[in-house]
Amino acid sequence: MNKFHLNSVKLINKAKEIFNKTSPMLRMDNLGAAGWVDDWVLMQNDRRTLMPFSCWVDEPQHPKFDLAKAFILEEMNRNHGHGRKRAQSMYAFRALELLNKPLPDIEQADLNNLTQAFDEKGYDRSGSSSFWGWCIEKKITPASLNMPKPIENRDRSPEEWQENRDKKLLADEQVAAIGVVYNELYSEEGLVKYGFKKYPIEYLSVAFCTLGISTPSRVNNEIFCLPNQMVKTHKDDDGNEVHSLFWKGSKNHPDNRTHLLDSMKDNVEHILEVLEPESLPAKILSCFMTNPSQSLNDMIIAYPEYNYKIEDYPKLDLKNQTNIFHLGLILGLYEEEPVVPVVGKGNVLIKVHSLRRWKNFKYLSEVKNYDLIGYDYAIMKTYLGIVKSWNLKSHLDKCKPYLYGDDETTTLFK
Q: So which domain of life are we looking at (predicted)?
C-alpha cells in the first residue's frame, strides 16, 4: 500500500468519525439526520443544498465513493454558493465512478480518459478544480499529474450577450398573466373575496413576480430582505422622476437604492401597502426568536403599531419573560384559544370527554412558563397550522421526542 493509499484511508476514517459524532447532514425525506450511505441534504443559512448521490451514480453506497463524501464534508463550510457546492459534489461522485482504478493509483492516461468520458456523457466539469486541488492538498494523488480542468464555453460576443439578456426577460404572455392575477387578488374586491390570510402563497407569489418585473436585479431570495418602507421618489439631474427602494443586497453596499421601472411604481407601492400589515406578525415572532428572554411588554414597545389582543387575555403576564405561545395569543394567531393538559388542578369550566386519557386542562393564557404540561394530543393545537384536528394523536407520537424528551411532562419553555 503506497503513501497515497495510506493518506486516503486515514482521511476516510477521520471523515466517518466526525460524521458520526456531528450528524451534519439531513435525510432527503426530512425524517432526521442522514447516515453515511444515504443521500444528503446540507442546511446552511436557511437554504437546502440537495445531494442526491443515487441520481448521480449507480451504487452510491459503494466504498469507492467514501473519498467524495470526505471531500464534501470538508468543503461544506467554505464560503461557496449553493450551486457551486452541488457542482463540486456531483463532479467528485461522477469522477470516482468513471475512473477505472482506485484514486491513489491513477496515472495521467486515466485522467485523460476521464476527461473524454465526461465530455462524451455531457457531464458538467465545473467542480473539477476544487476536487483535484483537494486531492493534491491531501496527498491522495501525485502533484505532478495534469489534472482535469473546467470547460470555458462561454461565448463573449455581443450577439451572445444580447441573447442571454433576452432569455432573462419574461415573455409578453407571462407579464400579461401576472397582471391578470394581480388585478384579481390585489383589487379592493379581491382583497375582500380572497384575502392574504386564506391565500398567502398566492399573494406572495404575485408580489414576488411584480417586484421581479419592477427590478430584475433583485429577483431571488433578496426579496425577503426588503425592509418596511414605501417607494421613494426624487428627481435626477435632468429633472426626471426616479423611483427606488432602499434594499440591502448580498454585497452590503452602503448605497443600496434599487431603482424601479416607472410604469411599475404604483403596483409596487400597493403591494407594500397590502403586505406590510399582513407580514408584521411574522416579523414580531422573528424578533422575539432572536432574543427569547423578552417580555410581552418588550415586544409591544418594539412594534407599537400592531393591534395586539391584550384585552382578550387578562391573565397573561406582560412584565416578565414570556414564551412564543403567549406571544401568538396577543398577535391573534389562534382562531380560538387552545386548551393545554396540565399537571394539577385544571379549569373546571373546560369540558373534557369522559374517554380522554387526561382530565385536567387550562386555557393557554392561564398556563405559566414553568407549569407542568401533560402528555395529551391537545397540546398539538398550540402549533398553529401544522396539524389537522383528525390526526392530532399521530402527530403527537411523532413529536414526543422533541416536545417531551424521555419525560411524560413538558413546559411552555421546554
A: Bacteria
For 182-206, b/e burial (b = at least 16 CB within 10 A) is beebbeeebeeebebeeeeeebbeb
The answer to whether position 252 is within a domain reads yes
Residue 51 neighbours by CB under 8 Å, 6+ apart:
25, 39, 40, 41, 42, 72, 86, 89
Half-sphere exposure of 64 (CA within 13 A, CB side): 17
Q: What DSSP element (H or E) covers 246?
A: strand 241-246
Span 197-240, pLDDT tens digits: 899 999 999 998 998 888 866 665 456 667 778 888 888 888 88
Q: Which are the contacts of 132, defined by CB distance < 8 A and separation ≥ 6?
A: 141, 147, 148
Grid cell locating 98: 468513471
Domain containing 315 equals 291-403
Give 196-207 as a DSSP string.
TTT-HHHHHHHH
Domain C-terminal end among 252, 279, 306 = 279
